[in-house]
Every structure is written in structure tokens, then in C-alpha cells.
Amino acid sequence: xxxxxxxxxxxxxxxxxxxxxxxxxxxxxxxxxxxxxxxxxxxxxxxxxxxxxxxxxxxxxxxxxxxxxxxxxxxxxxxxxxxxxxxxxxxxxxxxxxxxxxxxxxxxxxxxxxxxxxxxxxxxxxxxxxxxxxxxxxxxxxxxxxxxxxxxxxxxxxxxxxxxxxxxxxxxxxxxxxxxxxxxxxxxxxxxxxxxxxxxxxxxxxxxxxxxxxxxxxxxxxxxxxxxxxxxxxxxxxxxxxxxxxxxxxxxxxxxxxxxxxxxxxxxxxxxxxxxxxxxxxxxxxxxxxxxxxxxxxxxxxxxxxxxxxxxxxxxxxxxxxxxxxxxxxxxxxxxxxxxxxxxxxxxxxxxxxxxxxxxxxxxxxxxxxxxxxxxxxxxxxxxxxxxxxxxxxxxxxxxxxxxxxxxxxxxxxxxxxxxxxxxxxxxxxxxxxxxxxxxxxxxxxxxxxxxxxxxxxxxxxxxxxxxxxxxxxxxxxxxxxxx
Length: 484
Ligand SMILES: CC(=O)N[C@H]1[C@@H](OP(=O)(O)OP(=O)(O)OC[C@H]2O[C@@H](n3ccc(=O)[nH]c3=O)[C@H](O)[C@@H]2O)O[C@H](CO)[C@@H](O)[C@@H]1O[C@H](C)C(=O)N[C@@H](C)C(=O)N[C@H](CCC(=O)O)C(=O)O
Ligand SMILES: Nc1ncnc2c1ncn2[C@@H]1O[C@H](COP(=O)(O)OP(=O)(O)OP(=O)(O)O)[C@@H](O)[C@H]1O
Ligand SMILES: N[C@H](CCC[C@H](N)C(=O)O)C(=O)O
Ligand SMILES: [Mg+2]
Known about the structure:
There is one protein chain. The chain has three domains: 3-96, MurE/MurF, N-terminal domain (Udp-n-acetylmuramoylalanyl-d-glutamate--2,6- Diaminopimelate Ligase, Chain: A, domain 1); 98-321, Mur-like, catalytic domain (UDP-N-acetylmuramoyl-L-alanine:D-glutamate ligase, 3-Layer(aba) Sandwich), CATH 3.40.1190; 330-483, Protein-Tyrosine Phosphatase, Chain A. It contains 16 helices and 24 strands. The chain has helices at 3-6, 53-58, 85-96, 115-128, 157-169, 181-185, 207-210, 213-225, 242-246, 292-307, 312-321, 348-361, 382-393, 409-417, 434-444, 473-483, and strands at residues 12-16, 25-27, 37-40, 63-66, 78-82, 105-110, 133-136, 140-143, 146-149, 174-178, 196-199, 232-236, 252-257, 264-272, 275-280, 283-287, 330-333, 339-343, 368-372, 396-399, 428-430, 450-454, 461-464, 467-470. An eleven-stranded mixed beta sheet has the order 9-8-7-10-6-11-12-13-14-15-16, sandwiched between helices. The relative contact order is 0.08. By secondary structure, the protein is α/β, with parallel strands linked by helices. The site of magnesium ion (MG) has 6 residues, from helix 4.
């Protein structure tokens, strides 16, 4: 592609060098630069892409996009000076891939919890309605039936636009994607055209990255601020910050809720371990998901489908048929009647929701035994809170490791233990080895008891010091149940 075409609608401050240049690829990592690449220097958390200009040029970059021009420039290279390279990277990626988001209906889901669930349910619902659909999520990306591995909740702008291009070329009518707060702040979605945005909720997470809760709110809100007047913005009327999200949006505002007044209303009529009966907009509908929080997710899905002009009865029928994402409230049963639940709860709010759901569903005084760890290199302040809520709502808790990443597992465990009151310590055990922790929970359980294994859900690995070792909570639980 010619550089001139690539720079269409890009706010360029200054250009030094040739404009009539062919660009064969774009990248923001000097290690991936090839002959005739365009390299965008981005400032990151650990380092600054501007430090790698020489490497990029020596590897063949024909164009470099920068926020600061170097003191000496190379004559064979074109320098493009811009204000914000992260933002411009998003625009360049949409131009390079032919602006794919304008050729399908793209709906983004943001919020602390529920993004994967809602995006996956919408993907399944629209496939059920007969459309060709794309999905971009934490668990996996999909183009119809084709599964592509996911590395992030929201990919970088190049991966994202390349994926959207493939979806358009494959004939997708819709794409449902997760929009993480990291993605908003890092401008991974700059330049995309959304047909709609959905807000789930906002509670404690990622304060390591955003610094304050206020900044975290602002990051989520920016997604809605940037929607255009043709899009819809669907928010949770029962969330304290639901209205704030839509304060400055140009989009068409709509709400959903179980408690407060809303455009889309629902009520949970009956709850069981294998599903619940919902009353949605005047109709009864049986869904295969469990828990009040999933009633919100289902209602958001219903609202979005109606805003995307689908027929009510067809939507309700499809809602009964679909399942959610892997590793979310997955129920397993042992031969002697112990119930295992694997769930991706990795925030205090999610742990509280899952445990409250289990407490509401148990028929008698069965014990609830929770196995829980917290991720390393992530928000440290959520650790004691997650432990405290697990202890408050369980009969016994086994504190263990999640993905320690580069941290010492015992240091993470100590942060969690700080949230446990002295009076509760007798019901709290520490077993750092996750496999052993799950096995111990199963051995402590009597027939009828419930073992909740929280935090890793669908993940098939445990990340320790940069290495991902095979680990699957469901597999370990199943193996242990089979041995008993
Ligand atoms: C904290 C965070 O979001 N980090 C992301 C960020 O990396 P970074 O800021 O550390 O980048 P950096 O290492 O400082 O490098 C700065 C720049 O220099 C460039 N560079 C660097 C070295 C070199 O030799 N040459 C070079 O050009 C890099 O390519 C980069 O452009 O930019 C990278 C490229 O896009 C991401 O892969 C990386 O995600 C890391 C792996 C990550 O773990 N991110 C998590 C926290 C994340 O994004 N999570 C969210 C939400 C999770 C959820 O709740 O669902 C997600 O959307 O997945
Ligand atoms: N609407 C909701 N409100 C509160 N908690 C929820 C909701 N939906 C799901 N959860 C809980 O949060 C966990 C994660 O759900 P899900 O994967 O859908 O969220 P996510 O927003 O995609 O998370 P991530 O930020 O990791 O991508 C679930 O396993 C469940 O425990
Ligand atoms: N997307 C979330 C997932 C957390 C999952 C948990 N297992 C952990 O590793 O902390 C994050 O990167 O913060
Ligand atoms: Mg997710």
C-alpha cells in the first residue's frame, strides 16, 4: 500500500522524507520489522518504542511514525511526526486493512465482569438466528466455526483489524468483541466503528494499571464517549456507575435492569443448578445459565439483539438454546454426590456473586469448600478482598496459587491471608500447589457438599516465571472425582 493512502485522515504534524513509498507491512515491535515495513514507536509500560528506531531501520523499515523526531535522521527513511502514536497506530491499522469494521456490525462489551459471557452468548445467539458471526474474546476468537487462539481479551490494533478483515472477507454479518479497559487506554480500538456498546458493571480490578478507581471508570466511559450517533449504548441500570458511562455519549442510550426502571426488564422466577426461568419483557424463558449475575448477562444479550433489530420471539427461543463461555459456572458431579463448580471468578465481586449463587441453590446445609488463588503481576489490593469474601461465604477455604507469573507464590498467598480475620482462621487452609489444593478440597467434601474452584475457569495453563505449564481445573477436579 502507498504511504499516501495509508496516511488518509491521520493527524500528521510533520513529514520528513518521501511520500511516494510502498509499505508492505505495519508493526509496532522492532523485532517484527521486515523490508519496507512501517514502524510505529509506541510508549509502553516497560519500555519506549522510540528506543528501537535504529533497530527497526536496520531491519528494513521504510517509514517510522514517532512522537519525537530523532536528532539525526536517515535519508532513505520517511519520518512521520504525530502527537499520539498509540492513537495513530489504531488509525493506520484500520487504513491498512481497508477499514473492515465499516463492513460488518461490530458490538463491543465492556465492564469488570461478564464481557466474555455476553460476547459469547451474543455470538451463539446470532449463529442460532442463522447469521455468519465473528467473536473476539478472552477465551478464543472465532470466525463462524473456525477457532483462532486468543492472547488478550482485546488484541492489539493490528491483530484486531487483521482479524476483522478476515471476518469481512469470510462474509460475517456481525462481530461481538470484548473491550477491556487496558484496550481503551492503550487505544487498541482507535478507528473502529461500533454499531453498539454494552456496559456490564464496574467493581474492583486492575488498579495496578489504572492507579485509581476513578481512572478505571474513566477508561470504561471513554469507550462510550467515542461511539457515534448511529450506534446504541446499552447500560446496566442497576449498576452504580451505569448512568455515568453514558453521560457524554452521542449514541442512542438504552438501559437494562432487574431492579431499577429500565428499557429492558427481567425477573428471575426459578433457579436450579442446571438453569433458571426468567421473565423477560413479559415472556417466560428458560435459560441454561445460573445465577442472578447471569440474568443480567442474558438480559443484556436480549436488549442488544432487539437493538440490532431481531424479532422478539425468535430471540427468546434462541436464548433457551444457547450456552455461555467455557469455564464459567461449569458443574461436575462425583460418583458419591459431591458437586464441583469451576468458575473464572477473579475479582471480589465475581467471587461474591458465584458464592451467593451457590448458597441460594443448595437445598440444605451442605458445606461449601472454596479453592482460590490470585494472579501474580496483577492488582495486589484485590487479594485480601477476594480471600475475605470467600471466607465470609464458604464453610472452608483453601488458599492456593493462581498464575504466579513473576511473583513468589507465597508472597501472593500472604497478601490473601491478610484478608482473613483471626476468628475464621480455623476454616482456612493454605496449600500452595494448586493440584493438591483441589484434591484436598475434594477429600474434605462429604456427599452433597459443593467444591468451588475459582479464578482460572477455561485456562489450560498455569503461568510461572514466563512459562505456561499445562493445568486445567476441570481436568484435576474430574480426575480426583474419578479416583474417589
Ligand atoms: C500492561 C499491558 O497491557 N501491556 C501490553 C503492552 O505492553 P507494554 O506496555 O509492556 O510494552 P513494552 O514492553 O513497554 O514496549 C513498548 C513498546 O516498545 C516496543 N518494543 C519493545 C521491545 C523491543 O525490542 N522493540 C520494540 O519495538 C513494543 O512492541 C511496544 O510497542 O503492549 C503489548 C503489545 O500490545 C501487550 O502485549 C502487553 O500486554 C501484556 C502482555 C499483558 O499482559 N496485558 C494484560 C494486562 C492485558 O492487556 N489485559 C487486558 C485485560 C484483561 C482482562 O481483564 O480481561 C486484555 O485486553 O487482555
Ligand atoms: N454480569 C456479571 N456480574 C458480576 N459477575 C459476573 C458477571 N458475569 C460473570 N461474572 C463472574 O465473573 C467471572 C468472569 O466472567 P467473564 O469471563 O464473562 O468476565 P470478563 O469481563 O470477560 O472477565 P475478563 O476481564 O477476565 O475478560 C465469571 O466466572 C463469574 O464468576
Ligand atoms: N484477564 C484477567 C484474567 C485474570 C485471571 C486470573 N487467573 C489471573 O491470572 O489473575 C487478567 O489478566 O487480569
Ligand atoms: Mg473476558
